[in-house]
Amino acid sequence: MVSGTLGCKSDVLVREFFEILANVVISNDRHIAKLLLPHVVLDVLNPGIKQQGRLQAVLDEVLAVPRGDPADKKFERCANFVFGLMDHLAKWSQLARARITKERNTIRRQPNSSGSAAAIDLLKERVRGVQSFLKKVPHHDISLASERARDYLRHIMHCEAQIRAERGD
Q1: Can you give the residue ranges of the Serine/threonine-protein kinase ATR-like M-HEAT region domain (predicted)?
Q2: Alpha carbon 39 to chain centroid distance?
Q3: Which of 19, 86, 94, 145 is most buried, judging by how many CB atoms fall within 10 Å of its CB?
């Protein structure tokens, strides 16, 4: 999935990096996979890269987990991977929006500052891509999966979000 995702000079370095780590991930070291997954998905969600097929593949995988069989021994682990991914994307989006606001304010106060309007626009695009991805994952599905995975706090949070969305809040 990672091969060819950057479309820039660093693409070769990324491929080499992931080829080295592939053996670790293949040997069932889930901790490495759990650490890498959010960063790989953020890369796939980069709007500057034409990879709609990969984006859909990631979305299909994310949506498959909540609809999985809770009797399966791997369900809870997979659900927790997805929950961690969703949390990481939401946190990244929140931090990126804060950075955009800070950079925009810096540019307004100091027009000759090092902040670049083009860089801010690119970051805004990435945030929109991440938020669009997160909106494609229904609260209802995450709510049910979190209940089945015994993550009751997340279950309540997504139930509330679903109710707010239905009301239009």
Answers
A1: 17-167
A2: 8
A3: 145
Locate 27 and state its tokens.
């040997």
Looking at residue 6, what DSSP letter applies? S
Distances, alpha carbon 7 to alpha carbons 14, 42, 90, 116, in Å = 10, 14, 25, 22
Residue 160 lies in a domain: no
pLDDT at position 94 is 95
| pLDDT computed for residue 6 by the predictor | 34
Q: Is residue 148 part of a domain?
A: no
Residues 6+ apart with CB under 8 A from 104: 115, 120
Domains contained in the chain, number: 1
Tokens of 71: 């009797």
Q: Which residue has the higher pLDDT, 23 or 3?
A: 23
Domain of 67? 11-137
Phi/psi at 68 (5° precision): -75, 175
Q: Is residue 146 part of a domain?
A: no
Whole-number Å distance between alpha carbons of 59 and 5: 16
